[in-house]
Specification:
two-stranded parallel sheet; 4 helices; 2 strands; 43% helix; 5% strand
């Protein structure tokens, strides 16, 4: 599992991981998968059915999902990509009205400011 996690950090072609019925999932493996989720933003689905998970195994997943802020050095580029995407959407509205084939709309990461709070309720 650790070798799989190392490989997945740089593999952007895999969209789905299914660890269902895997009896080798440990706390260390869970943290390795969370590291993958941080480095590989192309993953869209992680299957974990039929696992004998306890809180110690699953908490790292919940802590990792959607908790990674968008890198500041990529914000301007992302905003430019969002502007291009919005232009495609507007163009597609016109194409749809004239019953012509529409252009594919790219999926992009959301830029959101994530506020975290510690146990005392203070923002960190």
């Amino acid at each position: 599992m650790s070798q799989i996690c190392v490989s997945l950090k740089t593999n952007s072609s895999i969209k789905v991981l299914d660890f269902s019925s895997n009896k080798d999932l440990t706390v260390e493996t869970a943290y390795g998968i969370c590291d993958v989720m941080t480095a590989n933003r192309s993953l869209e689905y992680i299957g974990m059915s039929k696992l004998s998970l306890v809180a110690d195994n699953i908490i790292p997943f919940f802590e990792g999902i959607g908790r990674f802020p968008f890198p500041e050095d990529q914000v301007e580029n992302q905003l430019a990509e969002l502007k291009k995407r919005d232009a495609i959407i507007e163009k597609n509205k016109k194409l749809k009205a004239s019953k012509k084939p529409e252009e594919p709309v790219p999926q992009l990461d959301n830029i959101e400011q994530i506020t975290r709070k510690n146990e005392a309720g203070e923002e960190i």
